[in-house]
UniProtKB/TrEMBL annotation, chain B:
<keyword id="KW-1003">Cell membrane</keyword>
<feature type="transmembrane region" description="Helical">
    <location>
        <begin position="175"/>
        <end position="199"/>
    </location>
</feature>
<feature type="transmembrane region" description="Helical">
    <location>
        <begin position="220"/>
        <end position="243"/>
    </location>
</feature>
<dbReference type="InterPro" id="IPR035906">
    <property type="entry name" value="MetI-like_sf"/>
</dbReference>
<dbReference type="Pfam" id="PF00528">
    <property type="entry name" value="BPD_transp_1"/>
</dbReference>
<feature type="transmembrane region" description="Helical">
    <location>
        <begin position="249"/>
        <end position="269"/>
    </location>
</feature>
<keyword id="KW-1133">Transmembrane helix</keyword>
<protein>
    <submittedName>
        <fullName>ABC transporter permease</fullName>
    </submittedName>
</protein>
<comment type="similarity">
    <text>Belongs to the binding-protein-dependent transport system permease family.</text>
</comment>
<dbReference type="GO" id="GO:0005886">
    <property type="term" value="C:plasma membrane"/>
</dbReference>
<feature type="transmembrane region" description="Helical">
    <location>
        <begin position="281"/>
        <end position="301"/>
    </location>
</feature>
<feature type="transmembrane region" description="Helical">
    <location>
        <begin position="25"/>
        <end position="54"/>
    </location>
</feature>
<dbReference type="InterPro" id="IPR051393">
    <property type="entry name" value="ABC_transporter_permease"/>
</dbReference>
<keyword id="KW-0812">Transmembrane</keyword>
<dbReference type="GO" id="GO:0055085">
    <property type="term" value="P:transmembrane transport"/>
</dbReference>
<keyword id="KW-0813">Transport</keyword>
<feature type="domain" description="ABC transmembrane type-1">
    <location>
        <begin position="87"/>
        <end position="300"/>
    </location>
</feature>
Amino acid sequence: MLTRLKKLDKVKLVNTIVLGLLSMFFLIPLIWMVSTAFKYESDVFVFPIEWIPRRINVVNNFKEVWFGDIPFYLFYWNSIKIAGSTTVITIFISSMAAFSFSKLRFKGRNLLFFTLISLMIIPEQSTLVPRFLLIRTMGLYNTHGALIFMAMFSIYFTFLMRQFMLSIEDDYIEAAKIDGANYFRIYWQVILPLCKPILATVGIIKFIWTWNDYQNPLIFLLSKELYPITMGMQLFQDDFADSYAVLMMASLSAILPLVIIFIILQKQVIEGISLGGVKG
Amino acid sequence: MLEDKKILKATKKTGLSAERRKEAIVGWLFLTPEIIGMVLLYVLPIIFAVLLSFTEWNLVGGLSEIRFVGLDNFVKMFSDERVFLALRNNLVYTVVVVPVSMIIALVLATLINSRVHMKSFFKVAFFIPYISSIIAVGAIWRALYHPSQGPINQLLSSIGVSNLPGWLADTSTSLLAIIIISIWTQIGYVVVIYLAGLANISQEIYEAAEMDGATSLQKFYKITFPLLAPTHMFLAITLLITSFKVFDLIKFLTNGGPINSSTVLVYLIYQEGFQRFNMGYASAISILLFTVVATLTYLTWKLQNSKIFGG
């Protein structure tokens, strides 16, 4: 028994070492970014790589990114604003639709649901030109409104929420009705509180996706002061093409908030990502 | 369903049809924002894209310049070398990225799922690239790929490679450079999906196999791999579709170059529509993209025999 246990532990150790080596391939670029963000420009490409910089220039790099000619704090604020409002609005629109699809009975409901689901087949890149014309007609071109408007409807999230709501017992609703609650109160005071787990999952994923969106700001924004962080990174690359220490500080600043959110809420993020995959 | 009928009967009897009507009105009310969004952002745009693909229209000239040209754009498309290159690059990208990501991720997921220390650390480690902004990731790799001073080429030259690749700056390696970053970025996603698939396999099957004296390798080939079939299928098609939508890294790092060596369909749409303002031609390419992606998506649903309406 004892020898068997020892043997198994050896397997566990070997597995861990193999996995550890493989994970280095994924972590090294990120570690390189962090280390470079602390360096003087002239030390960036020193070989063999100085993983722990000999001379530290982090304060100047930080100042250059956050308080230099390109206003990083402004891009940050824009990203928070865009991703934040998109997330909140999406949660409302999708949960309202999901409530109707799962808990209210009326003619044409299932046909409509089927139609919505089949719209998912349209890749958003194939409708860029007409959407551009629409946004211009609506007077939203070059506004945050354009980005929020285009991201606040989500069939996928409506679908996920509907699935979740279907698992809620109708008894809750019947009880609320007997207490004299109308449908709006049922949605607000009964359904939404019960849906907290799925709302959290969907909200985090939406926030991450919107934060990382590059294509829509590229096409629908013109003014630099409206840029979110992804477009800000583009400006940095254009202006500081060869200042890798500053660029890596900018990259680190762009990635860090998401990594922190992810580490704190990893259960929800991973669950949200895998929800789509286990179905079917 | 039975419940529905009962309620319907009851309402008829007690004359509560006003209540049913109210439920229907509220139902449509709750759906209104979603429906408006879908009509404005999906239904009308796709119809417009089709219509525009039969026209020649430079946005700069205004609405009066719009001209019906029949199938001209499509004829032009099939003789346009860039479209051919873009399609070819999309295909090469897909054929490499999809299987390589799946194989690496399956190995990683199986290891994470086995007896291993620091399980949760590994889950996080592989996932960080996936949630990181692709643009920040692009900036990191641009530095790593630096042809003369970058760490990758310095490492290659230190182990004696004399013919150093130019990575993003060379027509023969630009697409490969993009492919490596894409795989690195999306592995975390594929691992997570595989882990979810692995969690669905009952432990009892493994225990039974162990009783019969199966080795770890046998267990993998005879149990794990075949039982993951639905997951393989889901991933293959999801990754296939995302591969045809690749754009961000290419726009940020190569602009489709050098000399169109890394151009793809979505990049062409961007170039024609938003740099040259040829809205008609851009729409025709959009329709090509739509056809490819829609076909692939349709296949997913077909193969998954969707449980969407099972509810």
